[in-house]
Amino acid sequence: MCWHVLGAGSLGILWATRLARAGLPVRLILRDEARLAAYNAQAGLALIENGERQRFAIPAQTASAGEPIERLLLACKAYDAERAVAAVAHRLTDKADVLLLQNGLGSQDAVAAMIPDARCIFVSSTEGAYRDEDWSAVFAGQGFNWLGDTQHGASPAWLDDLRQAGIPHQWTADLSERLWRKLALNCAINPLTVLHQCRNGELQAHAEEVTALCVELGHVLHGCGQPGAAEGLLDQVQQVIAATAGNYSSMYQDVAQGRRTEIRYLLGHACATAAALDCPAPMLNQLRLRLIEHLNARGLPSD
Ligand code: NAP
């Protein structure tokens, strides 16, 4: 069975090339005819791993291609997910599995509501990759992938493809705690690195602000039925800040490079959840407003 990978960005390339390297059939779905022509004008996708570049001539198409899709890996940003799925929804078979790689929360439920007959599988990934040029990604950080669905269903048979492809993974019956925890870590660290224009480690100088955010995030997590995601949150935030002291957060890098952030699905989702629960979150709301102001001042979208 073929893997259709929508989006040939950092993670799309990382997944598509490893699946293709294992001899599995893969098709890329690109944004439009212009991107397809640009892709076809050169020699496939490249993956750079341990300093070595390998090329893979993976066939590509646009959403308007006719063939049915039984397994779709949605590898675009959260803010592109609904539009991207709308373009291929008519091609999904009635047994289709759709893997959602998006960071944060909110986009997955929105996509799942658009394709109620498909089995949507959420993925929480700690692998790291970035594009060094078009159609080429550097595998920058070993990590892990947790997969699960909202129905607490059994693990799909195609997990064996991931094993064959050397994609580290585990089926997790309830992924929501992990997704909420990752979102909370992101909310406590990333926006502050943007506003203070600093590396993660420099947040040690803003310990009071970090602590207050973690307290509020804990209340929101308890309010939305995720006490497990709240447990030990501040300790883990401090550990991440120390362990990644020399790094710039992904949101910092997006803003520094003039790219749109996924604010709506991270801090925005935490604030929207707090509001829906009537859970007071003044620090989080204030942080969001400061971040929006910062993004607007740089001409970047703030949603
Ligand atoms: P990315 O490098 O920006 O790639 C996104 C790709 O999606 C781009 O190639 C874009 O096409 C494509 N795309 C958008 N709309 C499309 C459409 N309608 N049809 C076809 N292609 C479309 O993003 P990424 O870093 O891979 O991130 C993907 C998701 O994974 C994000 O939610 C991110 O937060 C999450 N994530 C990333 C990493 C990482 O290390 N990169 C780690 C963990 C989680 P164009 O090239 O034409 O613009």
Automatic annotation (TrEMBL):
It catalyses: (R)-pantoate + NADP(+) = 2-dehydropantoate + NADPH + H(+). Residues 3-150 form the Ketopantoate reductase N-terminal domain. Residues 175-287 form the Ketopantoate reductase C-terminal domain. The keyword Translocase does not apply. Pathway: Cofactor biosynthesis; (R)-pantothenate biosynthesis; (R)-pantoate from 3-methyl-2-oxobutanoate: step 2/2. GO terms for cellular component: cytoplasm. One of its GO terms (biological process) is pantothenate biosynthetic process. InterPro entries: 6-PGluconate_DH-like_C_sf (IPR008927), 6PGD_dom2 (IPR013328), ApbA (IPR003710), Ketopantoate_reductase (IPR050838), KPA_reductase (IPR013752), KPR_N (IPR013332), NAD(P)-bd_dom_sf (IPR036291). The keyword Translocase does not apply. Pfam families: ApbA, ApbA_C. GO terms for molecular function: 2-dehydropantoate 2-reductase activity; NADP binding. Its EC number is 1.1.1.169. Keywords: NADP, Oxidoreductase, Pantothenate biosynthesis. Catalyzes the NADPH-dependent reduction of ketopantoate into pantoic acid. Belongs to the ketopantoate reductase family. This is 2-dehydropantoate 2-reductase. It comes from Pseudomonas graminis.
